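Hello Y.,

Per our agreement to keep a running log of every chain we model this quarter, I'm adding this entry. I've kept the format consistent with earlier entries: sequence first, then predicted structure.
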Amino acid sequence: MAVTQVLGTDSIDTWRSKTNTISTALGDPAALTTTAQNVVGGINELDNEQGDLSTLSTSAKNNLVAAVNEIKTDLDNTTSATALSRPVLIAFA
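Predicted structure for the entry above:
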């Protein structure tokens, strides 16, 4: 997607059209499902809620889905005679 820039030399109609394009691409802040009132606040709220991925006790630290899948794989591979490690037990808490 190309960056839409409103130039000082644009006609009023071009300015209106570009502003509408930017607004449509950004979306309606009223449709946010976060408590934030604007898009930047919503993104920051979601970023803060997911936590610091580098502190995950899994080897997958790049995203939450990969970390959860790692735990699920570990559990799927666990037999009834295998003791669960402390991080796995904590995940169940």
